[in-house]
Amino acid sequence: MAVKTDMSKAYDRIEWDFLEAVLRRLGFHNKWISWIMACVSSVSYSFPIKGSPKGRMIPSQGLRQGDPLSPYLFILCTEVLSGLCQRVQENGQLPVIKVANGSPLINHLLFADDTMFFCRSNQKSCNRLMDTINRYGEASGQVINFNKSAITFSNKTSLAMKMAAKLTLGISKEGGVGKYLGLPEHFG
Q: How far is CA 62 from CA 11, 39, 43, 142, 161, in A?
């Protein structure tokens, strides 16, 4: 099966402590990290009331939408999710699949806040996938928007297996009729 997930309010939910830990883990210099964190944490918001800005809210998490640095910082954070997926792949806990003859073995693709996971539709794989997603969410602050997520099953998947996978993953919508990154979601 292919599970297309959408992160809910992806930029708004990145925990600053998580971002800083990611930068440290990736080996960025302390001075650079302090500059980045100063840029990220120096934001404040006002709200227009009767035509003029009022109040001041200082957030404690999130990346600014429209800031040219934010997409790069978000990608660095999603490297943690990619690493978790690679680890469960290497441990044999989440078997990989081939999406076509001659293709490499994969279990996920990342693009911005959309992730496509590939795995078997059995209970063990569904549980491991949810564990991996939840582990990333607990660390990063990210939450899946289940209403915008969908599962595409292979033609050989039984109805009972489809229902069990949907229940375990909390995703009720079946995909396969839309597009992902401009390509048809249908898998043969």
A: 6, 12, 10, 10, 37
Q: 15-41, pLDDT tens digit by residue? A: 999 999 999 999 999 999 999 999 999
Say if strands 183-184 and 179-180 run parallel, antiparallel, or are unpaired. Answer: antiparallel
pLDDT band for 58, please (50, 70, 90 cuts). Answer: confident
